[in-house]
Amino acid sequence: MSLNAAAACRVFDMQRFSIHDGPGIRTTVFLEGCSLRCAWCQNPEAFQSGAADELSPEAVLAEVLKDRDFYAVSGGGMTVSGGEPLLHLAPVRALLEEAKRHGIDTCVQTSGAVPKGNIEAVLGLVDLFHFDLKHMDPRRHRALTGAGNGRILQNAAFLMERGASVQFRMPLVPGINDDPEHLAELARFVRSLGAKELRVLPYHRLYLDKYTALGMVAPLRGTEAPSAERLAWAAAELGRHGVAVVLEG
After folding, report:
1. 169 is in which domain, residue-wise?
2. CATH classification of the domain holding 101
């Protein structure tokens, strides 16, 4: 599929041999741009307009295909991440079409903070959605990310109603979203969608050097990573409310 320059993929990074961005060994394509400004964002370079390389979907797929043999033996494939990849519907749809044309498994990592039509437009091209849930309280969500969560929760329900394969994920940030009341509300929402599992991504501090290099100040620079005991407690708390936890990272 040939696209003009306006539909190029704005790629700020590509990571080969990723093992935490979906099943098997994967190549993760990171695209510039995001509609949220999460206080704990691990990829602030996604905010730097104009810093990414403009590549055609065919050029991106050519890089992805270099590790095709590893995908075959591990059940892996291509993951499209960001930023928020579904902001860029035309190039992302074209990239996913190219991947499926070559028989490559596809995963999209999304915050859900996009128009429902953007999600619907790629439904048949995505084998797995990684869908992030950050905070259930709309005011807290706006304070922490710059936007409310109404559209996000609606899109989560839409994907489940459409029978998409979805893994819900939450970054667990101490003092932000790890209190028992929030975990109980989160568990109720996940279960209401028919999901029984939540993948928890423990907050870490490895991203802070990126902010320094970009001349930015990390809002949560004083926050420490959760202890093993806190993670075990949070997993048990979610389990008490009927949601199994898979720890990632």
Report:
1. 5-247
2. 3.20.20.70
